[in-house]
Structures are given as structure tokens and as C-alpha cells.
Amino acid sequence: MNNNGLLIVLSGPSGSGKDTVLEKLLKLDDNIVKSISATTRPSRDGEVDGKDYFFVSEEAFCDAISNKTLLEHAKYCGNYYGTSKKVVEKLLNSGQDVVLKIETEGARQIKEKCEDSLRIFILPTSMEVLADRLFKRGTEDKKSLESRLTRAVDEIAYSLDYDYIVINDDADKCARNIYSIINAEKFRVCRMKNIVNEVLNNAKTIDR
Ligand code: 5GP
User: Fold this and answer.
1) Is residue 25 exposed (0-12), middle (13-18) or buried (19+ Cβ within 10 Å)?
2) Which ligand 1 atom is at minimum distance from the Cα of 10?
3) Atom 2 in ligand 1: residue holding the nearest Cα
4) Residue 40: which of 78, 85, 87 has the closest Cα?
5) Which of 22, 45, 53, 81 has most ligand 1 atoms within 8 Å of CB, for mutation?
6) pLDDT tens track of the chain, all 208 residues?
7) Is 145 in the pocket of ligand 1 (CB under 6 A)?
8) Whole-structure pTM value
9) Which of 16, 34, 47, 76 to mutate to test the pocket of ligand 1 (most atoms within 8 A of CB)?
10) What's the 101 CA to ligand 1 centre distance in angstroms?
11) Does the beta carbon of 53 sit less than 6 angstroms from any atom of ligand 1?
12) Whose CA is nearest to atom 24 of ligand 1?
């Protein structure tokens, strides 16, 4: 039987509330873990190295790209972000479901490389809600805020390429909806082939 975990891509524009939704999702199931990305973005107040991100220099990030140790990577509003191949493989092999909270270019790369991944996009109810949330969060300067809002429009247009789109009008509901999708995904026929074969092989051993 295949005990590998599910690779889950969770995207959504900056200000869509995906961090809150992800924290709620992780509380619903101990077997779901998040992958910690590397980034060249400076840390924000309260962010912890090794918990929120691995904050690295641009040089270290470029080395990781040339050494091909990243499963995916992208430049987002002037900073690099990427996922460690080794860490994700280890978690999946141990049977855990791994969430990559990444932007759309990284999601596109994952679709190419890992075709059995599940890709979910979190959509805000409107651009006003998104802009308001981003503004009130107060983590970005004016330039970064503008560039994130511009990027948000492109990302929302790309959402149609995902497997599922979940609206975030309520973070608890959104997390529960995502959890339902994850659970249903595990019973897709393409994921059940090994167990069907096991049962069929077992049938051959039974005396009739
Ligand atoms: P933030 O700077 O707000 O933490 O993240 C900016 C964007 O980068 C978000 O959309 C976030 O999901 C995305 N991101 C975070 N980690 C990664 C990663 O490892 N790879 C990619 N492609 N995007 C990431």
C-alpha cells in the first residue's frame, strides 16, 4: 500500500487570509504539516527564523537554485521564495500531508513536477476586502503594498488553473472546506489503485 502523504499547494493573493486559514487547517489534523520555505525577504516583526521562514541571503538562495535543491522557487515582489526538495520528500515519505503555502509561479512548477499534487486557491470575496486587510495588517510599506495589489490581480486570474477555489468569507469555514477537499482527494480512483490491486491479489489466495 502506498503510504505517501498528499502534497497540497495552497495559494492566494497577499491579504487573502491564507496564513490564518492554514493555521486553522493545521489544527484540524495532526497529520497535516506545513513546509517552511526559504526567502530572501527581510523578516517582519514577530517572525521567527526556522518557524515562519528560513531567512537567507540572496547568495545562499542562488546557490540553492544552482545546486537544484529546491522543489520550486519564484521571485515575488522583489524577493526570492523557495521550497526545499529534501524536506518535502522526507515528510511525504513519512506519510504526512504537506502544505506548500506558495504563490502562483511556484504552483505552476509543482503542477509540472508533481502531477498528483492537490492545488487549492483561496479567493477573497472582493478586491476591496483584500486591499483593506493588507492595509490594516500594516506589514508593508506603500511600494510593497502597491506591488502586492497589482500581483494579486494576476494571481486571481491564474486561479482558474487550480484544482479547487475556496472563498474566504470566514476563516473557520474556509479551513473546514479545504479539509473536506483534502479528505475527498484521498479517495480518488487514481490514488486507490494499489489498494484495489492488493485486495484482488488477496482474493486469489482465498479457497473457494
Ligand atoms: P510573504 O512575503 O507575504 O510572506 O509571502 C509572499 C508570497 O510568497 C505569498 O504568496 C506566499 O504564499 C509566497 N511564498 C511563500 N513561500 C513560498 C515558496 O517557498 N515558494 C513560492 N513560490 N512562494 C512562496
Assistant:
1) buried
2) 12
3) 41
4) 78
5) 81
6) 446 899 999 999 999 999 999 999 999 999 999 999 999 999 999 999 999 999 999 999 999 999 999 999 999 999 999 999 999 999 999 999 999 999 999 999 999 999 999 999 999 999 999 999 999 988 889 999 999 999 999 999 999 999 999 999 999 999 999 999 999 999 999 999 999 999 999 999 988 7
7) no
8) 0.94
9) 76
10) 7
11) no
12) 102
Contact present, 56 and 40 (Cβ < 8 Å): yes
Cell numbers standing for residue 176 = 473546514
Cell 479545504, located at residue: 178
The model's pLDDT over 5-18, given as tens digits with 9 standing for 90+, comes to: 999 999 999 999 99
Place of cell 479567493: 123
What would the grid cell of residue 67 be? 545546486
Q: Is the CB of 14 under 6 A from ligand 1?
A: yes
List the one residue out of 116, 93, 117, 90 whose CA is nearest residue 2: 93
pLDDT (tens digit, 9 = 90+) per residue, 114-139?
Answer: 999 999 999 999 999 999 999 998 88
Residue 195 to residue 186: CA distance in whole angstroms: 12
- According to DSSP, the residues that pair with 55 across neighbouring strands are 39
Counting ligand 1 atoms within 8 A of each CB, the residue from 101, 108, 110, 140 with the most, and so the one to mutate, is 101
